[in-house]
Design goal:
- There is one protein chain.
- The chain has a single domain (about 1-75), classed as Phosphorylase Kinase, domain 1, CATH 3.30.200.20.
- Helix content is about 10%, strand content about 45%.
- It has 1 helix and 6 strands, in the order ββββαββ.
- Strands 1-2-3-4 form a 4-stranded antiparallel β-sheet, with no helix packed on it. It has a two-stranded antiparallel ribbon with strand order 5-6.
């Protein structure tokens, strides 16, 4: 699967999943590796993104790209 917003990402194998989405390996066109979390479109999804703007907070992973995909919800 390929996803694009600010960068284009090639999405690979599933790393894990939980109660609010699944995490996959990903790589951009420049070779930068990252993890992509796909979150289903559901009530409360926007609240999930509020926790991504907590710069410098321990145990919060920085977000380097985000968007919405018509087939896969938010990423």
């Amino acid at each position: 699967m390929r996803l694009a917003l600010n960068k284009e990402w090639a999405v690979g194998a599933r790393i894990g999943s939980g109660g609010f989405g699944a995490v996959f390996e990903a790589e951009d066109t420049a070779g930068e590796k990252a993890a992509v979390k796909l979150v289903p479109k559901a009530p409360g999804t926007e609240r999930e993104m509020l926790f991504t703007n907590l710069d410098g907070v321990r145990n919060v992973v920085p977000v380097i790209d985000s968007g919405e995909h018509e087939d896969h919800g938010f990423w």
